[in-house]
Amino acid sequence: MFEFTSERKAMSVVLKHPTKDKAICFVKGADSSIFPMCDGYGGVGKDSGFLGPNDPNSKILEVEKSVEGMARLGLRTLLYGMKEIDWDGTRDPLDLPVEEIECDLTLLAATAVEDLLQENVKECIEDFRQAGISVWMLTGDKGLTAKEIGVSCGLIPPE
């Protein structure tokens, strides 16, 4: 397993295929990390020009737009991808560099969850402000998600 790091914003697990001489790598992480790891990804909002209609990643631009829409709603998003690796059993796949494992992925799924605010957060922040206490928001969330959460809890005024 390649554990999550804040630099990669992803984590991976490598499993031996039950019937083939292959290993399967499953990766999950932030869209900003997983999209560039996917086979045929051309960059944010760009078609690579290399993906045919039957390619497993042919819908990647649609997924990207969907993920952006979910982030605008303040949802926390994760992407999942996988890759088969030739493996004859003589070498441990975990001995390979992570960059060799986490590349040319097939995008499997995108998820979005609402991370609900605790009760009375907005009122509490307003009380702090009225008392002259500065309030800061620190997050590792995607920018769009963080902005929407900031608006929902009253830290950022709605546009």
Q: What do we call the CATH homologous superfamily of the largest domain?
A: Calcium-transporting ATPase, cytoplasmic domain N
Q: Sheet bearing the most strands, described? A: 5 strands, antiparallel
Radius of gyration: 20 Å
Span between N and C termini? 43 Å
Low-confidence stretches: none
The sequence of SSEs as H and E is EEEHHEHEHH
What share of residues is helical? 25-40%
CATH domain class name of the largest domain: Alpha Beta
> How would you classify the helix and strand content by structural class?
alpha+beta
CATH architecture of the largest domain: 3-Layer(aba) Sandwich
Beta strands, count: 5
CATH topology of the largest domain: Calcium-transporting ATPase, cytoplasmic domain N
> Largest beta sheet: what is the strand line-up?
1-2-3-4-5
Mean pLDDT: 86
Question: Would you write up a description of this structure?
Answer:
This protein folds into 2 domains: 2-113, Calcium-transporting ATPase, cytoplasmic domain N; 121-152, no CATH class. Strands 1-2-3-4-5 form a 5-stranded antiparallel β-sheet. The model has no long low-confidence stretch (mean pLDDT 86). The N and C termini lie far apart (43 Å). The protein contains 5 helices and 5 strands. Helix content is 28%, strand content 24%. Helix 2 (60-72) packs parallel to helix 5. It is an alpha+beta fold and 159 residues long.
